[in-house]
Design goal:
The complex is a heterodimer of chains A (about 200) and B (about 100). Chain A has about 200 residues and is mainly α. Chain A contains seven helices and one strand; from the N terminus they run αααβαααα. Chain B has one domain: Orthogonal Bundle (Arc Repressor Mutant, subunit A). Classes of the chains: A mainly alpha (about 200), B alpha+beta (about 100).
Chain lengths: ~200, ~100
């Protein structure tokens, strides 16, 4: 597009369609955030489960990893935003949903430790489902929509299984809501990146 | 009787820029250059024309010590683009 060229009507329509589809194809996510949270939550759940037998004092602090993981998350978000070069109409809204979810989780964790709620897993799973479903639904990314729904189903299932196994259900929630969609997003991202090279 | 197509938009690069900006909330100059395969100079001239017509807002700032130009379509730009597409459709329908 070096010189200002006049266009036929057909060419104009073709150009509009091609530019809109180019911009739409750039809406990919790198998938790293979803993978990060999937891995962290699954690891924490399995470590907590194992600690019921191991009784290692250090493993009682394993959930502090969630706070530590916020740091790489901030770096990832900043880098992705810088690399992308554009902002979509829904990016602020989805960012707001995840930010409010993060605050809700920390507030609930505080309430949980203060009141020592015994059956907290269904509440966490219900909270996991909200931003996951909203993101999947908003971006029309079915694996995440299904992941959000799976979290809500698992929240109900936890009511009918012994306490010891609820951590497995929480790990399954993280696997279905974040880890698997994260892997799929990563695959799409790498494929798109290879095509651009 | 057909209306003349908007001359500001009826140019390859300006139409490409507006089509990209209608899809996103805002975009950096480098992103527009990459997507349109235009040179920085030419793109800069066409962006200025769109700005003068009031179709886009151009925000210049600094990010990490580098100049950054962000372009955003205005409500007037959205209206002009919609009218342009409508006129185009009218032309193409009569041809069929």
């Amino acid at each position: 597009m070096e010189k200002e060229q006049s266009l036929t009507n057909e060419q104009s329509l073709e150009l509009i369609t091609s530019m809109i589809s180019r911009a739409k194809n750039d809406y990919y996510d790198t998938g790293i955030s979803a993978l990060l949270w999937g891995v962290v939550i699954i690891f924490c759940c399995l470590a907590t489960y194992a600690n019921q037998y191991l009784q290692w004092p250090i493993l009682r602090w394993i959930w502090c990893l969630v706070i530590v993981a916020v740091v790489p998350q901030i770096i990832i978000s900043m880098r992705e935003g810088r690399r992308r070069g554009f902002k979509t109409h829904e990016s602020n809204m989805i960012g707001g949903i995840w930010f409010s979810y993060g605050i809700a989780i920390f507030v609930f964790s505080y309430i949980d430790s203060y009141l020592n709620i015994r059956h907290d897993v269904p509440i966490y799973l219900t909270l996991f489902g909200i931003p996951t479903f909203a993101t999947g639904y908003g971006r029309r990314f079915r694996p995440m929509t299904l992941g959000g729904l799976a979290c809500w189903v698992l929240a109900i299932v936890t009511l009918f299984v012994p306490d010891y196994y609820t951590l497995f259900l929480m790990a399954s929630g993280a696997l279905l809501a974040w880890f698997i969609p994260g892997l799929l997003l990563r695959r799409c991202y790498l494929k798109a990146k290879r095509q651009h090279v | 009787m057909f209306k003349d197509l908007n001359p500001i938009l009826h140019s390859q690069l300006r139409l490409a820029v507006i089509s990209l900006l209608i899809t996103v909330k805002e975009a950096e100059f480098t992103y527009l250059r990459e997507k349109t395969n235009a040179t920085a100079g030419n793109l800069s001239v066409q962006i200025n024309k769109l700005k003068e017509a009031g179709y886009i807002d151009v925000i210049k700032s600094f990010k990490d010590n580098y100049p950054q130009t962000i372009c955003k379509i205005t409500p007037l730009g959205v209206q002009a683009f919609e009218e342009y597409v409508k006129d185009l459709q009218a032309y193409l329908n009569i041809k069929k």
